[in-house]
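EI: anyone free to look at a 689-residue chain?
SC: sure, send it
EI:
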Amino acid sequence: MNEITHRSERKAQAYQAQAGGLVKRALWESLRKFDPRVQIRNPVMFIVWLGMWLTFLLAFDPDLFGRAAGGAMYNATVAAILFFTVWFANFAEALAEGRGRAQADALRHTKTDVLARRIKADGTLESVPAEGLRKGDRVRVDRGDIIPTDGEILEGIASVDESAITGESAPVLKEPGTDMFSTVTGGTKILSDWLVFKVSADPGQTFLDRMIHLVEGARRQKTPNEIALTVLLAVLSLIFLIVVATLKPLAAFLHIDLGVATLVALLVALMPTTIGALLSAIGIAGIDRATRFNVLAMSGRAVEAAGDVQTLMLDKTGTITMGNRQATEFIGLPGFEELAVAQAAMAASWFDTTPEGRSIVSLAMTRGARREPSWDQAQGLEFSAETRMSGTNLADGTRARKGAVAAVARFIQENFKAPVPAELKEAAETVARKGATPLAVTLDGTIVGVIALSDVLKPGMRERFDYMRTLGIRTIMVTGDNPITARVIAGQAGVDDFIAEAKPEDKIRVIRSEQAKGRLVAMTGDGTNDAPALAQADVGLAMHSGTVPAKEAANMIDLDSDPTKLIDVVAIGKQLLITRGALTTFSIANDVAKYFAMLPAMFMRSLPGLGALNIMHLATPQTAVLSALIFNALIIPILIPLALRGVRFRPTGADALLARNVLIYGVGGLIVPFVGIKVIDMALSLFWH
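SC: here you go
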């Protein structure tokens, strides 16, 4: 997974600074979770909880279920160990939830009590509390005001500080009529000028309210995979319960004194308690990692689905490329050198304030073009959809124009009755074959050459798509460009496929086609026209700067509005799945080791043949049971940091990942308990008789 941004690193440092407070709160919350209504949600730990109370009663009355083996002290020790086992499991979940609550508390600080200036029907302003605003109300905000709630901009243009939401210190320019920057969020602040916006959410349903609701761990619901694993663990626990229950009559037949507390300890040690204790924390921590990466997941299902994504759809502009085309080349027609084309292009672009226009001026100056003093008295003409050109009327009457090749050709024919050079078509096709957009340049009716406007790939995009390929993920670029340009950009970026001249319905068609093949699809979007596709995709990542329909259709929102972050979200999802799989493997391997620790020690005195299986040479049956039980409890807090941080994710194939999982967490899960139980047994044998 790519390196987290500096802002995310600062967030991680802030979390470390408040770690002490989180631990204290989690310790208190973990005690409250002993409530049976909470425990019953986790079948594995509920059985441990029942065993704790059962052995606690046996500590007071060892003969509660007949003549007991082990005595009150032994039963009390088992009860205490089971108490800590449940407590550690509660603590893991409470700590994961506490990190979400800490983020929610920080967000609540941005919800200040502010008065909003609501515009009445007659145009006058009235002051009302922010909570009094309703969807559809019109509100005016001026410099220095806190924006009281979410809305869509109707009038004005202003610089807005969104750092309270995104963590990004750079202000954002907001204005109506644009998909990307025509919405405002409650809790942000106006830095300059003014805005009039229409309220888009009722109280309690704003974006900030949704963020607070979603980052609070206690309100997160289990994902389908987590539910399936919980059911599997419950079934395994039930099987072990039946097996252990049959040992009581078997022990009586063999004249073995096997107490109820020992049977409870055996059941708890053999059940998959490790993963049962950490399962909830792993899921909550996965969503927390996404949130710390400034991605708001609407549900745990979205993060989990990201880990299973097999097809990635990305827009070209702003995602794969920089978003603004840059001038990269001047091509002169016969009789015109590159410098002449550069000078004419600079004249035609002098008043063009668009990024493309500025890039033409910049490139022209590097090619030797110079500003003419007479341009101060010139008049600029803005680009229009009708003319498909822009340019400059110079003081001496000369007209410089640049624009689409067909538009410029028509301009000189209609206004100058001049022929179109035959070489223009060839020059334009040369530029198009390179994946660039050709713009013709004319000076007073003479076409002097062509400007190549190229999409500039974002740094490292090819490496990122190669990385996706190693994960078995197919990448599809979506663009409105013509097929020739799209093919060139797709080749440069290294995507697996592309869709040229794409319309909104084309995106939905491709998503459905991929889903029909059994693949999970992820895509990014920011505009209203992206909303249907975002809703159709299994993982839809909307930009925070995008429109309200886009954000409502998606199941993830990127607060940084970085379309390439979808690639990192996939890695976060895979890390969640890998962490769950690794700790499940470790838990099952643990059970095998505890089997060899407990069963031979419990029966070898009556069945000497089992002594060969006592490979750890544990001191006594009682110390063997207690050692396994203590290790079973202690391994939970030891693994909490790994559950919250996540297993390190590397882009490898499924076979390599399985081999690594078995080698590290399978073999490790076998070896560690043998060592741990033996050490604990040696310590117990010093004073337990």
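EI: Residues 515 and 521 are 7 Å apart (CA to CA).
SC: 👍
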